Structure formats: structure tokens, C-alpha cells
Amino acid sequence: MSSFMVLPFDTFCLTGTTPLFQGIMIKSIHIIGSKQFGGAENFYARLVCALNDIGYLSLAVNRPKSTVSTTFDEKVKQIHVPMRNTWDIFSVLTIRRLVAKIKPEIVQTYMGRATRLTRLPPSSDTIHVSRLGGYYKIKGYYEHAHAWVGNTQDVCDYLIQQGLPTKRIYLIGNFVEIYPSKTPHAKFKLRYLLNIPREAIIIFSLGRFIEKKGFNDLLVSFAHIPDEINGRKPFLVLAGDGPLRKKLQMQAMDLKIDKRVRWLGWQNDPGPYYNFSDIFICPSRYEPLGNVILEAWSHHLPVISTKTKGALSLIENGFNGVLSSCNDPDELAVCLKETLESGQHIWKLLAYNGEKKLLEKHSKKAVVKAYLDMYGELQNMNF
User: Fold this and answer.
1) Residue 167 belongs to a domain with what CATH number?
2) Do residues 159 and 213 both lie within one domain?
3) Phi-psi sector, 240: left (phi>0), alpha (psi -120 to 50), beta
4) In the chain, where does DSSP find H-type helix?
5) Cα 318 to the chain's mean position, in Å?
6) Would you say the C-alpha torsion 378, 380, 381, 383 has a positive or negative sign?
7) What residue numbers bound the domain in which 64 lies?
8) Are 307 and 326 in contact (CB under 8 A)?
9) What is the pTM of this model?
10) Which stretch of DSSP H or E encloses residue 32?
11) Within 13 A of 30's CA, how many CA atoms are on the CB side?
């Protein structure tokens, strides 16, 4: 989608008030400094849009030509700041001038780069919230914020262990949209385009092709799966890209499963591939939360996952998902084979219970309310 009137920030600073902000009360500024598009970027975009949808006007600040900047529609106002991977004094000053000019209630930063470069002067009335989705280095990057959000209890515990004040650490999870089920016609069309039989069982996974995501373990596990289960051929469909892509493709050939594996490349909108699949699998060796699990539930899929901290916080084994040990392809193969053999009745039950957990704990309404409650509480504090 095309983005709204994006201005380079140096232009903004030199020209003073621009038509972009005349007569508009911006309540919060959300800043992210990465160019890739993963879980944090996805949540950043979702939250900015959700806040704007309810009238809490929020400005998106991101890097020029970043993937996340292309995901917003014309309702979302954007500014680009370089946020180079150094002590970028230009970006520090331009972010500070932006905050001074707009005077938002909240500046919320995501991950280390944006947080490190957002340095508000003591005289500013704006509150700086830093949102973390992992166990990052705190000193020099995060401690200058006024408050911190962890998206799991384990992340919040880590922040406390690092010496940040407990009363200003908030647990707020991620949310994903709930999608309607697609028609069989849409599912079969994609299968046809990927040369997958209509009656095949599709196991779907996605992510960056890096070591910690465990895709090499998944390929070994899939090699243990028979060519046919209950009269249907299993296919593995992978969406993603990264430095291990060629190595993984060679591994699939060495395992003689390349004819049953489909490589989609990176997908900014993986929704259609969730929709045409039967089972989602997350083979990660490390995952603080696991947005992909929430996304799979939002598309009504049963989930198999390794026992990362994120998965353990979401999945009750055998009730709303299936859990296997991390970095153990043999055990993962057993879990996958047993789930495939259990049939569609069990798949639907796992998916139903997963979606129920999603609605209870990770709905858009609940998460947005939690953020607004936090913003209100912070404005009543003395810093």
C-alpha cells in the first residue's frame, strides 16, 4: 500500500511547521530503526494503525526505504529518520526537535537502535516508553527511558533483573487480527500455482533463515515423514529468506525431500499461505514470544512448536497446540507424524482452543486498552 505524504526529516526540521501537522493533535510518536520486517516491525505497524483507528492519533517514524514504511495506508502519517547504526547525533537531534515541535504525550520506541537514539531533554513533558520483545543489552540502550514494556512475563522479569524499576515495567502482549476462513476455491488456486495436489496436507512455516529459527531441524524432521499419510501426501511450504537459504535448499536436496518442499521467498503478507495450509509448525531454537503462533491461530490453524519460552507461555501441550523439545529433530518428527495421523477432527480442536486463547489474551481490543491505560498511568507519575 502507498504511504501517506512521507517527508524526509531534515526537510521537516529546516522548514518549520509543515502542512502535515497543521491543526492535528498528535498524541504519540512511534519510532523503529530497523529495515527488515519481522515480528517487532509487524507489531509496530499494527499498534500504530490500531491507535489511529480509535482516534488516538499517532505518528510513525522509521527509516527511509524500510519495508515497514510501505505497510501503512494513507491514514497513517510518517516521517523518515536515517537512524544509522552508529552514535548518529543527527538522528538524535532530529528526533528531539520533532518531539519538541509536536509535543506528544508519549514517544514509544521499539528495540535498541530507536531507543538509544531517542534522548529527550529533562525539560520535556513527553514520556518515553520503550517496548522490548527480547533479552537485549540494557545498559547504554534502554535505561534512559521513563518506562518499559515487555511482551512476556519472562521479558519483564529480565528487565527487573537488569535493575530497571519494577513499578515502571509493564507486561503487555502482542495482538494479531482475526481473519475469516478462506473459501476452498482460494486455497486450491494457490495449491495449483505451487504445483501441490488439491488433496495434499500442507505444513506451513515462515521466518528468517538464520540458525536460531531451526529450519534445518525442520527439514530433518520432515525427511522422517512418509510420502503418504491417511491417503494424502504431506508437503512442506516455507516462507522466508536469509543467509542460510541456499544451505537449507541444498540440505533439502541431500535429504531427498526437495520435491515435497516449496520455497516462497520473503512474504510481507503471508496471510494467503496461512489460509491454504492445514498445519503450522514453528521449529525455533529461541523465541521470546512467537508472533507466528498467534498469527497461525488467527488463521484458524493448529500449531506444532518447539518448547521456546514464547511457545511455553502460549501453548498447553495437547490442548491448544503440540510441543516438542528444541533442537531435537527426531522428537519433532514424532510430534509432526502423530499430529498428521490424528486427522482433521483433532486439528480443528487444537485450532479452536488456540484461537480461544488468542481472543482471551491477545485481542486487539485488550492490548490497545492496556497501552492506553499505561499511557494514562504514566502521565500521572513524577519523573
Assistant:
1) 3.40.50.2000
2) no
3) left
4) 9-15, 39-53, 89-102, 111-117, 153-161, 184-193, 215-223, 245-254, 271-275, 291-298, 309-314, 329-342, 344-361, 364-379
5) 25
6) positive
7) 4-175+363-379
8) yes
9) 0.78
10) strand 28-32
11) 26
Cell 487444537 belongs to residue: 350
How far apart are alpha carbons 29 and 36 in whole angstroms? 20
125 and 267, same domain (yes or no): no
Show the cell assigned to 69: 514504511
Looking at the structure, tell me whether residues 91 and 224 fall in a common domain: no
C-alpha of 356 from chain center: 20
Domain co-membership, 326 together with 191: yes
Residue found by looking up cell 503418504 in the block: 228
Strands 234-239 and 201-206: parallel
pLDDT tens, the chain, 383 aa long: 333 344 444 444 433 334 456 667 899 999 999 988 888 898 999 999 999 999 999 999 999 999 999 999 888 999 999 999 878 999 999 999 999 999 999 999 999 999 999 999 999 999 999 999 989 999 999 999 999 999 999 999 999 999 999 999 999 999 988 877 766 777 788 899 999 999 999 999 999 999 999 999 999 999 999 999 999 999 999 999 999 999 999 999 999 999 999 999 999 889 999 999 999 999 999 888 788 999 999 999 999 999 998 899 899 999 999 999 999 999 999 999 999 999 999 999 999 999 999 988 888 998 999 999 999 999 999 88
Query: How far apart are the C-alpha atoms of 352 and 35, rounded to whole Å?
Result: 35
Same domain, 155 and 218: no
CB-CB contact of 359 with 173 (8 Å): no
Comparing C-alpha atoms, which of 367, 308, 376 is closest to residue 49?
A: 367
Coil/strand/helix, residue 148: strand
Same-domain status, 346 and 232? yes
Question: How buried is 235 (Cβ within 10 angstroms: 0-12 exposed, 13-18 middle, 19+ buried)?
Answer: buried
Q: Are residues 357 and 371 in the same domain?
A: no
151 and 133 in contact (C-beta within 8 Å)?
A: yes
**C-alpha cell of residue 128:** 518515553
Same domain, 357 and 373: no
* Number of structural domains the chain divides into: 2
- Give dist(CA 158, CA 133) in Å, integer: 11
